UniProtKB/TrEMBL annotation:
Domain tRNase Z endonuclease: 129-185
Entry EC no(s): 3.1.26.11
Presence of keyword tRNA processing: yes
Identification of the protein by name: ribonuclease Z
UniProt-annotated stretches for the region Disordered: 50-107
SUPFAM superfamilies: Metallo-hydrolase/oxidoreductase
Catalysed reactions, as listed in the record: Endonucleolytic cleavage of RNA, removing extra 3' nucleotides from tRNA precursor, generating 3' termini of tRNAs. A 3'-hydroxy group is left at the tRNA terminus and a 5'-phosphoryl group is left at the trailer molecule
Amino acid sequence: MLQIANFRLFFSPNRSAPRLLSFKAALSTPLLCKQKPPHKPASFITVLSSSARRQRKAYPPPPPRNKSNSTLREVKTKENSMKEDKSIGFNKRRAEGRDKNDKPKDLQLKARKLNPVNTISYVQILGTGMDTQDTSPSVLLFFDKQRFIFNAGEGLQRFCTEHKIKLSKIDHIFLSRVCSETAGGLPGLLLTLAGMGEEGMSVNIWGPSDFKYLVDAMRSFIPNAAMVHTHSFGAAPAADGAALADPRKFVDPIVLVNDEVVKISAILLQPGFLEAHQLMKEESSMLNSAALGIEEKNQFSNSLLLKSQDPNGKAPPVLKPGDISVVYVCELPEIKGKFDPAKAVALGLKAGPKYRELQLGHSVMSDYQNIMVHPSDVLGPSVPGPIVLLVDCPTMSHLQELLSIKSLSSYYVDAVNQNLNTVKSVNCIIHLGPSYITTTPKYKNWMKKFSGAKHIMAGHEMKNLEIPVLKSSARITARLNYLCPQFFPAPGFWSLLNLKNSMPDYITSCEVSVQKPCESVSAENLLKFHLRPYAQLGLDTSGIPSFLTPTEVVNELLSEIPEIGIAAEQVSQIWQEFKKHENVILPMSDDDADIIQEPWMNGNAFTPDINSGKQGAGESEEEKIPCLHSASIDESKHMSYLPACLENITREDMEIVLLGTGSSQPSKYRNVSSIYINLFSKGSLLLDCGEGTLGQLKRRFGVKGADDAVRNLRCIWISHIHADHHTGLARILALRRELLREVPHETLLVIGPKQLKRFLDAYQKLEDLDMQFLDCRHTIESTWDAFNDKVESSRNDLTLGSPISIDNKTEGQDVMTTESNLFARGSRMQSYWIRPDSPGDTGMGFQTLMKLKKVLNEAGLEALISVPVVHCPQAFGVVLKAIERMNSVEKRIPGWKLVYSGDTRPCPELINASHGATILIHEATFEDGMMEEAIARNHSTTMEAIEVGASAGVYRIILTHFSQRYPKIPVFDESHMHRTCVAFDMMSINLADLPVLPKVLPYLKLLFKNEMMVDESDETVCQTA
């Protein structure tokens, strides 16, 4: 019996934007709260806490606001005023998670008036993942009034923004499998749909059998107005969710959509229970014979497919929910034959509306004869409607099922035994499977059964690796690389020649030989196959973007900004001067024992002559390039000293790679939050992991290099539950599991807020993520203190190598005590963070901390400490502290210290944690004139972020997480940036290069001198759709 389960996920609307309330004493629970600033000199920031007992004071108004798109309600300046140099406001309701309207809405699906006769229709390849091979490409089925998308991997939303594909027209999304590769972009897509219009947009999402697990996984972080209608088809999961019902019951096509313009059916492919294990072994033997440098090799034996048998071979294989793949069949209605007016007149019909009815396929009564006139009486022969198949065959066991199913037999053409008139002719087949499957002899023979069909090979093809799909971002990267290659390395793609040399012979030969008998072509980004009008039936390559080389980008830049060539020479000279003196250390006084001097920046700052390109007393660079200004004397003095931790530092100690520097949602130029901390031989960490993180890693390091980066991850730390900070996590974890499948390894530690665990637990029902979760609350400083005390008290009872034994009750009391102290009534944190529940399994938390301690030690880190911040419930910043080292004369050199703010208002907890930090990576979502928006959304302005670092004595500040209203470069006051730099996607900052970091900023500003504010034409698609 066909089983289609329907689930509706209601996302609560936030109908009114947060607004600033007046500071009136009568308000018992004000939105913006204040506390008396502490009595200490030169203090610039304190967090405002709620206190109804304190008398409100009048403060001077904030600085005038610049242009903004704020929808916040304007209030009186006097009521919103505050002393900027002493106190900072925040949105208390948002920090406590009480700024949402949780009432569900009955948002109806869009009703489209379809036009089945005169319509334009085509299928188009949306090249998500084509250049990075990190996700499955999407396919768009286009009609005048409807849009259908097949697969929604990571990067789909950003792709649609880049190529101006209107998301508001999408009615249905179909998944060929339910896993991170095909569905990783859904959360971001749904959030965008939720923000469209006043109430958001609704959408149908279709997937095989277990789709409700994915929906459940997203409930915890999509609180917007969109209502998603989810439809699950096929075999239902067992009651415990561990196994699926017998897949053999579902052999007939399942009709999903059947309207006037298209009929869409699904045919399930489920690997056989008996032969799959042997086929998996054959695949492993086949592919391990060659060292492929592409991700698809790592997916050949998807661990979602089958659970391995026990050593005795008695345990039956169990299908995980993500095992099922789908063949989608899209059939357009037949094209009616030409209407013959002479026949209509002969049958007694008058010209008029009845002619139209007959053309639409309806029978009518004759005007002059007592007979019914049928369409076949007056129409010529009909032309069969076009048929498109989308085939996802990810493994050899799926291929075995594909070859055996009978529901596709009506589409096969057997030239010997079958009458062509009884066969449904397929016009186009899009193959989504990997090339190592689609190039096998069995698969090629199966393709030959569709005589006359055009085959589009959309699996990861080598030819697409060097053609960037996101051209706008690639252009910015190439420009930055030309100006400053030290901080902006060239993309790490392998050359096509190297990739061909790494491919096994049987694959490269098959890719060539398959072209002739099957009329196949390799998919390219935006390749179309026209379906209607019938006269245009066939391939259309006119929309494929042209290849843009880095040389062309640089030539375009030099034509646009001629002085950029001189600027690039000056940046090069800055680096040469820095390298000349980087190992020279001048003695300091005893009072300055913790710092060393940089002679290359002391006294007269290096200011080369722009005319000659040499250092001299000629015309200064700021006179020729107006945006460049020399540092003041005080700034130069500050920049002339190095923290002691940078003494004798090497390029193999630490590097920061900023993978995503935008906020909320990805744009053409900036991806969402993600920071890769490269510790080189000691491994790596990820701080936040927004959608598209894996793709960004592949753009930075190349396909093989990104695999190595994922393989060497030590842990991943997530700041808070908002989707732009963690929805790339599942894809990273799934790839790591595949890369290490046959290698002994430990599960990866994921540190994050408690809500994230609910998402990951739900996701693991779809595919094994091979990870271990640790609540951020277990890594705050007070919890670490309790942990260290417990370890110390237990040390005498332990023998070398024996496991730590601890009473869960006692350890749990310690954890609860630290939390109770942190969130006690009257404490600073209690006013803006609802006290979270105590961790459930405290004993497990202790053991996980022991594992984290070991991981940190192996990575050369002394500590990883989470810091509660002011943004939303359970939002954190993080501190990374490196282990001390010894120099050549056995003197102790302190380890470097990195602080990442996550999303936050300025707060004392973060300032205290940042004290003496080498690097502070701080969010700067808004420009200084948008203080109201920053407060209402609990973000920081540029100046606030800089002042946090200055008040904490930070050596270098990196600003990130910019609002998408600043698509290329944010607005900032350069006069305060002497220790600060603005982050860009793909920016790589080596610890050894920190001294020169601020010197580059004026040149970056020159690069974008004409684009300091958003170009209206570059607004995201969701705003114009």
